[in-house]
Amino acid sequence: QVQLVESGGGLVQAGGSLRLSCAASGRTFSSYYMGWFRQAPGKAREFVAAISLRGGSTYYADSVNGRFTISRDNAKNTVYLQMNSLKPEDTAVYYCAAEIALSRGSSWWELGRYRRPDEYDYWGQGTQVTVSS
Question: Cα–Cα–Cα angle for 133, 63, 92, nearest 5°?
Fold first, then answer.
């Protein structure tokens, strides 16, 4: 099992930047695919970004592609989400999620299953990001 704790959220003006961090417990962090999702009030949780075991492959929602960057540091058991050029529509609670790689084959990526919240077994408590106009 892995426990996840997000940090780095806050209030920022449109056009600004924030970096979210997600610290994972345990010694097997490098065995988990990691993702970031967000949920705005009254809306469903949506995919933001995902990263492979060593960080060699990254995937983004169209709405954030080119503005957000996901990365991971396996030595620090941490995954990051650098968010630049923030917009008011980015306002949401941001969650990191983890899924054990051994239970997923290459089709998990090829078929886009990494975009589905129900494909992840472990979640953090979330961190609020508010972007003012």
Answer: 55
- Series of mean pLDDT values for 10-residue runs along the chain (133 residues): 96 98 92 97 97 96 98 97 98 97 87 95 97 96
Cβ neighbors of 21 (< 8 A, separation 6 or more) are 6, 7, 8, 78, 79, 80
Considering only CA atoms, which of 32, 37, 38, 14 is closest in space to residue 108? 32
Give dist(CA 119, CA 11) in Å, integer.
30
**DSSP per-residue letters across 31-47:** GEEEEEEEE-TTS--EE
d(CA 90, CA 101): 29
| Three-state DSSP state, 64 | coil
Nearest Cα to Cα of residue 50 among 39, 64, 41, 42: 64
Q: List, in sequence order, the alpha helices (H) in the chain.
A: 107-110
